[in-house]
Write a structure and sequence with these properties.
Largest sheet: 5 strands, antiparallel
Number of helices: 3
Shape: elongated
Structural class: alpha+beta
Strand order of the largest sheet: 1-8-3-5-6
Strand content: 25-35%
Number of strands: 8
Distance between the termini: 12 Å
Helix content: 10-25%
Radius of gyration: 18 Å
Order of helices and strands: EEHEEHHEEEE
Number of domains: 1
CATH class: Mainly Beta
Oligomer: single chain
Mean pLDDT: 94
Length: 156
């Protein structure tokens, strides 16, 4: 089937997600699904993207014990109490601000999760598996914060 430019559509929204601790797995699936539905795009894909280097997007199962296991795995991968050059404010000179906190572990944990997920949209809904949910994962535990997540739905 050939798709004409006139029928291709793109819709974008920003979701603001408030976190309180880290790691924190915040299920944003319903909010994304609501936007996909309101876009009226029937077939295409939904891109969910975190605009932060210490807040990730991932697809996983929302099972409480598994979420604890995943938080433990992140800590094992990049422990908070290990030395990170990023945290040495006596020598670090780039991307510094007044409220800088030692969060090298958060950036390293982000490496295994990533910034985005791309989900197929079929017949107007996301084609997630039975147990799949979309999470924003807060990795920076110095303070809770509002995170900005972009959701872009593209298709016909």
């Amino acid at each position: 089937m050939k798709v004409s430019e006139a029928s291709f559509k793109t819709c974008l929204t920003k979701l603001y997600v408030e976190s309180t601790t880290a790691p924190e797995f915040i299920d944003i699936t319903d909010r994304v699904a609501e936007f996909v539905k309101s876009s009226r795009i029937q077939n295409g894909f939904a891109l969910v993207f975190s605009r932060h280097t210490t807040a990730a997007i991932t697809i996983q199962e929302n099972e409480p014990l598994l979420l604890i296991d995943m938080a433990s795995a992140l800590e094992r991968f990049s422990p908070k109490n290990t030395h990170y050059r990023h945290n040495d404010f006596s020598v670090r000179t780039v991307h510094m601000h007044e409220d800088e906190c030692p969060n090298g572990h958060s950036h390293c944990q982000h490496l295994v999760l990533g910034s985005s997920e791309n989900i197929p949209v079929v017949d107007g809904t996301m084609a997630l598996g039975q147990w799949q949910r979309i999470f924003m994962v807060e990795l920076d535990d110095e303070k809770g914060t509002d995170r900005e997540i972009l959701v872009q739905v593209m298709g016909v």
